[in-house]
């Protein structure tokens, strides 16, 4: 008799959908194997299907090329030559090196580097935080993805709370703004299709004709980084025509008169050449937005990765309050649902252990931190220098901007680098010690989504493969070898989950460890239907939607929404554009998840190879033919890819989907060789898509 069982898992990846996964296992104990993963039909938002990537998760789990044992470097940094060692040796090596470094430089010479390899609260921000807080390591500002928009949204709405995904199905007009849900949020797209079936119109605002744009009723190909100007021009049209909801504005917003004055500078005729759209298209969009209810905006990350990314989200987030869209559950805006979960992060992470005055290093500027040089090559003043780097849940050699500087830092002989990984990535190539990590099927966790409203439980389905250990297990071993006696550093994964759930809040009532484990997923007790701001109640200091923000003003920032142009753009920086005329964007490839899955053969075969798409009018004068190898370059670096000519991209913009591993790229570099470390206006976020380049053929055609 076979012992087939179905286990509740949750997708760990950095994707808003956080799917409920049903894992079928065969057998028991260490021999138990996972034989099938499926989307759970019981979870309303997962709706019984997984994306193309995670449907193949078992290939990842059982890939023979996984890191399965601890290893020590025996070659040069970057060579990826290692010898197997035991866990005891690895832990002793790491902690003895750290103790020596701490004695000489103090604990902040150690820098943890992690992002969203797993979004689980235990494995992503649990024991790791406790351990490094206790040790007194440098704090890492985790800015690589979402902080610009989060800050802009917070200044306006007060917290990352918005329309519940399922209500998109009832909207009559949907604006998909700087987002590509067919690729990056496919379970939301299902609701958009449902709305379309019921007659809704869908408009996508994106410089590139993505799968989403192509499936929309209208596509507005905006110039990258100019979205705030478009939103402000829409507001100008709406207010001039008196189409705003004066009752909603009077009761639930702050600063309308100041906003109206600000809009003086954003006439559609002024904005049209900035955003690269016809004046008539702007007016039409504004009219349609004001006159169609309920209207839902899906704003996402594409438009944040520019100098003014925070203000762009802030300007767009003003729109629903102006027209009173929030009155209906299907009206308003959705950036992220993460602020809807009232969890006890202080109990989970123990920020009270951070020694006062500990410095914070911005993860987007890793190159600068590791080389102790700024972008211009001047001393950057990190004192003490970063001497120990511990990487987990991230692949900075591939994903961090200004790759050449990052790699120069990782190559430093005197930098002691530990990388805890599932696979031999671009980053493990530079490690002194590589540690084997478990996958989601091998450890326990709960996952808080940012696209829906259920907490998700992940039961370990199988025993760890080889000698793999979970992040939390490794930190317990490190704590022991460091000689730490604090009992909270040894709590179990279950205790960590109980700690984060320990809150008194009506939305969390009855959501216990036992219930999550038994049911696999539990929706927050928010009112149904969820219309969070139908009668105001914003989470800002004033309780209103803040067109005018006193808190931004106190930080010396513009209190009103404004357009801050990209740093690298034809109009804002004509000198640079004369040398590097093309604006390069590098959004996610359909079959990868950031740099995860690039090494999975079945998925890489679909993506084939790294490419850059450019418009024929940009390709022809450069002598670039379809299919030819080209060099994409600026003063930060260069990478080689195959050119694809296409009218999907607007002229003047180039599109290089990511994030390829350097080792699968023709010249050992990827798109981040040309991106920069400059930060966004709000939230100190990354500006990956604010990068001017030029492109030339590698070999001229005869
Ligand atoms: N398949 C897949 N899914 C993913 C990921 C993945 O790598 N692959 N990554 C996950 C992660 S970490 C994230 S953060 C999200 C990202 O998911 P999205 O928010 O969808 O982010 P991007 O794809 O970066 O950008 C969305 C779109 O914005 C466009 N864009 C670029 N610049 C601008 C601009 O200035 N204005 C406007 N209006 N549009 C612009 C891009 O062309 C792109 O099509 O997806 C998650 N889901
Ligand atoms: N040019 C360009 N660069 C970008 C972006 C872009 O759009 N364009 N997008 C940016 C964005 S939005 C993001 S979010 C970042 C993403 O950057 P990262 O968060 O670094 O994401 P991944 O590339 O997916 O790498 C995650 C790594 O964690 C590992 N991992 C998974 N689970 C575990 C675990 O349990 N334990 C340990 N120890 N390791 C684990 C995986 O094997 C994988 O190698 O990249 C950014 N970089
Ligand atoms: S990556 Fe996103 S869509 Fe795919 S299974 Fe995970 S949560 Fe679902
Ligand atoms: Mo991200």
From TrEMBL:
- Look up the signal peptide feature and give its range: none
State the source organism's domain of life.
Bacteria
| Source organism per UniProt | Chloracidobacterium validum
What cofactor does this chain's UniProt record say it requires? Mo-bis(molybdopterin guanine dinucleotide)
Q: Which UniProt keywords apply?
A: Iron, Iron-sulfur, Metal-binding, Molybdenum, Oxidoreductase
Keyword NADP included in the entry's annotation: no
What is the name of the protein in this document?
Answer: Molybdopterin oxidoreductase family protein
Which residues belong to any copy of the 4Fe-4S Mo/W bis-MGD-type domain? Answer: 4-65
A Pfam family found in this protein is Molybdopterin
What family does the database annotate? Belongs to the prokaryotic molybdopterin-containing oxidoreductase family.
PANTHER family (UniProt xref): OXIDOREDUCTASE YYAE-RELATED, TRIMETHYLAMINE-N-OXIDE REDUCTASE
